[in-house]
Design brief:
The chain is an all-alpha fold.
């Protein structure tokens, strides 16, 4: 195969904005630490996720990175359900340095979608996807560039659509 200069390597606006955020739904509320036998570590117990924020010292002083990596490999991914998409640790206890309040990752994800002019999902809001109720959805359906894999923010913005 080799390199093909005609292939567009860029990610579409929808993928870069929405699909990358899917990983947030798979974050576990607990950081598990396993011993060499993939059992709960005798000396270093599991941690609530919010206790690990800005705590790199835990890796150095609490058994190294190996127990954490074993915990990641030895634990099934968090299942995603419609009633609980993002762990409470990420919506109620997300801490950022130099900010005095906690952040809500779900709200940040929604705002990112708005910032990038993503249309409402027909699965979550069928009326919003109707061209009659959503002029942006109508423009997106009639704009040949919006459906192209080479679309970008400019192609989806209301000012450039007919």
């Amino acid at each position: 195969m080799g390199y093909d200069p005609t292939v567009n390597p860029s990610a579409s606006n929808v993928f870069a904005t929405a699909a990358f955020r899917f990983g947030h739904a798979t974050i576990s509320t607990v950081v598990r630490r396993f011993n060499e036998s993939f059992q709960t570590h005798e000396q270093f117990t599991h941690l609530r996720l919010h206790h690990t924020f800005f705590s790199p010292w835990r890796i150095v002083k609490e058994g190294g990175i190996e127990p954490v990596l074993r915990g990641l490999m030895g634990t099934a991914a968090t299942s995603v359900s419609t009633d609980k998409l993002i762990a409470e640790e990420m919506t109620e206890k997300l801490v950022v340095l130099n900010i005095q309040w906690k952040l809500d990752l779900a709200a940040l994800n929604l705002q990112r979608g708005r910032d990038h002019a993503l249309a409402a999902s027909p699965r979550t809001n069928p009326q919003a996807a109707s061209p009659r109720n959503n002029p942006q959805a109508a423009r997106t359906r009639t704009n040949p560039h919006a459906a192209s894999p080479r679309n970008n923010l400019q192609a989806a913005s209301p000012s450039t659509n007919p």
